[in-house]
Amino acid sequence: MRGEDNQQRGIFSYRTAEERIAPDHPLRPMRRMVDEALKGLSPRFARMYSKHGRPSIAPEKLLRALVLQVLYTIRSERQLMEQLDYNILYRWFVGLDMDEAVWDVTVFTKNRERLLKSEVADGFFDQVLQQARARQLLSADHFTVDGTLIEAWAGHKSFQRKDGKGKPLDEGSHAGGSNPSVNFHGEERRNDTHRSTTDPEARLFKKSRRGESKLSFMAHVLMENRNGLVVDTRLTKSTGKAERESAWVMAWRVRRGHRRVTLGGDKNYDTQQMVASLRAIGVTPHVAQNEHKRRSSAIDARTTRHQGYAVSQRKRKRVEEIFGWIKTIAGLRKTKHRGRKRVDWMFTFAAAAYNLVRLRNLTPAAA
Q1: Which fold has domain 139-152+215-336?
Q2: What is the distance of C-alpha 322 from the center of its chain?
Q3: By the 8 A CB rule, do 62 and 111 touch?
Q4: Quick one: CA dihedral 15, 16, 17, 20, positive or negative?
């Protein structure tokens, strides 16, 4: 018998959000891990706020909402608040009651500087990493490093001469318009003479000779080779030496107080200076050999003859999974924030979210 299409809406509901979420939902173990990380950050949160005045939105709820934004590729905080209003799953994860009003989107804007100043992203990342360490999922001996470009929230038209003597707008273009025409043909544009008016810290850079030049930042990760978890992050200005300089810094951090470790990487790290500097701090470079006919590789048979070198070369390709996830799922192919500090904050936070996903997938196998 066909049912009737009644439009009568119920007035009351007697089921809580907890009851509506399936026991085996993938967000349940992640909620427990996030709560554990936020509990470890509680002393830091206490220092962030005054003991007097009107209570603010709990920072724990703000961070849970940002985790959702990363996991579900929500393109803006405004859309995040819209979905939080009607999505029961999101309300449960953040910790909002069914009838509790959502916040105004400006809550994130007003709290962003506070979160930046207190380095909450770094603290959250460390707390998640401690959980991985407690589960014995991290390698303490073998690592991989790599870098990628994060496109800045700035267009090529904003990249103008610092002295204000750039080429004028095309004839017929309206200077007051939001998208004027600009002819860059024949003009040499360099980072030492030009600067973006939208994001002055972004630099024009291309990672390969045939690649497209973009205003960007350079993001770096250090991955442990056992389970592909991120153990360190950096975000720098885009330069030709940024990858090698960051690799040395992150290798030095992980090497302190430990025995000799190995560091895998691609051909970009195969230089005499890089290999020598890594060996000087007790790090064995397992970087890919640059077999270009114009130069010789700094990696010789004393490294390549070991079986561990072949293992590192196979494992190092997993670092691309991290960048792929952060750019596609976390939405950082092109950042929506301006300034290196803000982009660095979001990149570190996205890396922590990636580790949460990996921990959720690895925990049953490790149990």
Answers
A1: Nucleotidyltransferase; domain 5 (3.30.420)
A2: 9
A3: yes
A4: negative
Write a three-state SS string for 22-35.
Answer: CCCCCHHHHHHHHH
Q: Tell me the one-letter amino acid at 46.
A: A
Amino acid, res. 253? R
Number of neighbouring beta carbons within 10 Å of residue 18: 7
How would DSSP label each residue in 50-78? -SSSS----HHHHHHHHHHHHHTT---HH
Distances (CA, A) of 3 to 6, 7: 9, 12
Cβ-contact 351, 326 below 8 angstroms: yes
Question: Which tokens hold the place of 124?
Answer: 């959250």
Instruction: Give the relative orientation of helices 272-280 and 242-255 as an angle to the nearest 10 degrees.
Output: 10
Whole-angstrom distance, CA of residue 279 vs CA of residue 308? 16
Residue 261: CB partners within 8 Å, gap ≥ 6?
A: 140, 141, 142, 143, 251, 254, 255, 282, 283, 284
- d(C-alpha 204, C-alpha 215), whole Å: 4
Return d(Cα 152, Cα 300) in angstroms, integer: 39
User: First-to-last CA distance in the chain?
Assistant: 50
What is the residue type of 214? Answer: K
Sign of CA dihedral 331, 334, 335, 340: positive
Going from N- to C-terminal start, the domains of the chain cover 17-118, 139-152+215-336
The one-character DSSP state at 103 is P
| 203-230 pLDDT per residue, tens | 999 887 787 889 999 999 999 999 999 9
Contacts with 174 (C-beta within 8 Å, 6 or more apart), sequence order: 180
Q: Do the beta carbons of residue 251 and residue 143 sit within 8 Å?
A: yes
String of b and e for 235-270 (b: at least 16 CB within 10 Å)? bbebeeebbbebbbebbeebbeeeeebbbbbbebbb
Strands in 99-141 per DSSP E: none
Q: Give CA torsion, residues 78, 84, 89, 93, to 10 deg.
A: 90
> pLDDT for 17-60, tens place per residue?
888 899 999 999 999 999 999 999 999 998 888 888 888 889 99
